[in-house]
Specification:
By secondary structure, the protein is α/β, with parallel strands linked by helices. It has helices spanning about 5-30, 50-60, 95-120, 125-135, 140-150, 160-170, 185-195, 200-205, 210-220, 225-235, 240-245, 270-285, and strands spanning about 35-40, 75-80, 90-95, 200. The chain has a domain at about 25-95 and about 185-240: P-loop containing nucleotide triphosphate hydrolases (Rossmann fold, 3-Layer(aba) Sandwich), CATH 3.40.50. The chain has twelve helices and four strands, in the order αβαββαααααβααααα.
Length: about 300
């Protein structure tokens, strides 16, 4: 297929996808409290996809992904929206922000490579085609952001150079366009305003999946869940089954990269830790992920 029809088709797909998400969000607001939707949200790369799948399986609800149409039937709505009262009765997933930064960095560097490959496949572009490709839909304006932060033609996998810059800028304005706010503000808004929200820690779900899943569903619905349903969900959506490799085995090209807690220690040096601490140190301590604001001083 010639480049121009492919670019227009790509743009139309992204436009329809973005529009369907907007309509779904309005439907969630309008049906607040009706029980039609079970919302599972959190900042990107916090484990929300996995936990959405677990909750949906236990409750017998669909968990749509990348829907091209608004969600009109009862289902689990997986999202990264900022807090609003319509989402009070929902599940919010929180994860150590340092692990989030590492996982999000890998996702964004993969996106940088994908953008380059896509432009290479389409060949020489007119200014209109380049605008459609870069400035519409999901990942819109990412290339401009990459060029601004890392410089044109940067090496995505020069971690020593790029990761500190990513952390600093991502905590000011998130690279991912599916999030309304940077990590610290996203989490703070939810914790400040939540009234009936069920908070689930990604680390607790990793440490004891049956207990954490049973508690989160019980807190949300007020009802206990059969052990067989819990066990079935955990087996069905285990990392080993869905990723096809043992948990802890990294694949940087995969959506489920590693599936562990504490991997941030392999990414953060003292300077990167200082940058994170300046933006989100108090929150990290208040959530119990660090004993004090001096945690980064121990990094090499």
């Amino acid at each position: 297929m010639p480049a121009r029809p492919r670019i227009v088709g790509f743009w139309l797909y992204q436009w329809a996808h973005t529009g369907s998400i907007g309509v779904t969000r309005r439907l969630v607001r309008q049906t607040n409290g009706s029980g039609r939707y079970v919302c599972v949200g959190g900042y990107p790369k916090s484990g929300t996809t996995w936990i959405s799948q677990l909750v949906g399986h236990v409750l017998g609800l669909r968990v749509p992904r990348d829907n091209m149409l608004p969600l009109l039937r009862g289902c689990v709505v997986h999202h990264h929206w900022g807090y609003e009262p319509a989402l009070d009765r929902s599940i919010y997933v929180v994860r150590d922000g340092r692990d989030v930064m590492a996982s999000e960095f890998v996702a964004m560097m993969n996106a940088a490579e994908t953008l380059r490959e896509r432009e290479g496949r389409f060949g020489r572009l007119s200014s209109l085609e380049r605008t459609l490709l870069r400035r519409r839909g999901r990942n819109a304006r990412l290339q401009q952001r990459f060029d601004h932060v890392f410089g044109p033609g940067f090496d995505p996998w020069d971690v020593e150079r790029n990761f500190p810059r990513f952390v600093e800028h991502n905590l000011q304005e998130p690279f991912s366009e599916v999030s309304d706010h940077p990590w610290q503000r996203h989490v703070e808004d939810w914790f400040r305003h939540r009234r009936e929200t069920t908070v689930v820690r990604y680390e607790d779900m990793l440490a004891d999946p049956p207990a954490a899943l049973a508690k989160s569903v019980r807190d949300l619905t007020g009802e206990s869940v059969k052990d067989t349903a819990i066990e079935s969900a955990i087996d069905r959506f285990s990392f080993e089954r869905t990723a096809g490799r043992p948990r802890g085995t990294e694949d940087r090209s995969a959506f489920a990269r590693k599936g562990v807690a504490g991997d941030w220690t392999n990414w953060f040096d003292r300077e990167t830790g200082r940058l994170f601490d300046e933006a989100a140190g108090d929150l990290l301590v208040s959530l119990g992920y660090a004993p004090d604001r001096r945690w980064f001083e121990q990094r090499g």
